[in-house]
Automatic annotation (TrEMBL):
Signal peptide, first to last residue: none
Keyword Magnesium belongs to the record: yes
Cofactor or coenzyme needed: Mg(2+)
Marked site positions, Increases basicity of active site Tyr: R162
Chain sites annotated for binding Mg(2+) 1: D42, H45, T295
Sorted UniProt keywords: Magnesium, Metal-binding
Full protein name: Mandelate racemase/muconate lactonizing enzyme family protein
GO function terms (MF aspect): metal ion binding
Amino acid sequence: MKISDVKLTVVGVPRHTGFVNKHVIVEIMTDEGVTGIGEMSDFSHLPKYAVDVVDLENVLKSMLRGQNPFDLTLINNVLSENYPAVMYYYEKGSFIRNGIDAALHDLCAKYLHVSVAELLGGRYQEKIKVCYPIFRHRFVEEVEENLAVVRKRLQEGFDVFRLYVGKNVDADEAFLARVAEEFGSKVKIKSIDFSHLLDWKETLRIVKRLAKYDFEMIESPAVRNDFEGLRQFRLKVDHPVSEHVWDFRQQYEMIRHDSVDIFNISPIFIGGISAARKAAAAAEVAGKACLLGTTQELSIGTAAMAHLGSSLINLTYTSDPTGPKLYTDDIVKKPVQYEQGYLLVPDRGLPGLGMELDWERIERLRVPDLSWGNVSVHQLQDRTS
Ligand code: LMR
Ligand code: MG
């Protein structure tokens, strides 16, 4: 079997918060008539320049045409040479590699009539506990609307939440106090997430202030790639510390400095299912736990994470992918399913990722390119409109 063509389609999908995220749908065709689908999820992250999708499609065609899709290691190596890791969390090259790697997994599994989880070592679990995000407060007035989000999502079965913090600590504190008061033990806060916005000492001061409220872990409490700062922070707090993996060098440094307790791993930020499996294996070897992070993918990207998570043994903390619940629309006929706060792994009987494109929906969401609208750095950091 040989790859015969590659097609990219750009969509812009609004969230319930009003923020619109741009994603690229990937189709990889073969001479045997089997097509794999993937998703380059969420290019709406800093830095504020746009990938030229027409050029990208042409370049990917020249790289992939004629390759056997089962040569995943070889193809990923070519992709890494062309889109190298650069020690940056939101590196767009990782998003590109991720979309191709997902489509290749879908393609190979479909060809074999198995689900992607079975390609990855089989199903260790059939569902993955996830939490719903509460985006960063900038104003105390936003506390009320975020409490309404908790009320609504709790009714849908989401009883674990994570909270982005660090820009208005009065609002962060007011929110945590009101959650404890209104919901008590019915709602759990998984993490407070500083998104690398602050120096670790500044974070430490805020954590001391918020420590009277219940939360399970602290995420991204130091500036990016400050491995020693993370370690200093980790040794001074009781909570476990988690950090995203965006480069194997960075993960190695975090292991070497014993910087974290939990690795937050997501295919989008490390460049695919294959790379994410390596990161999870490295974590396992280092005796560290994992959780699945997210950029907030659509259903194809989320399904890829469900299959990946299904096969991981050290996925011991609550994970983050809830994209299909955050967006007002999707690109597949049957979106991934959530039940009682769990992401369900698509059924074993469905080949590949278990997702089918819905072209009616896609036409509605299609946009010409990845060009930027008028959004501020704050809006991009805080995912607000
Ligand atoms: C999102 O898009 O909501 C997340 O990727 C935000 C983040 O960077 O953690
Ligand atoms: Mg985070």
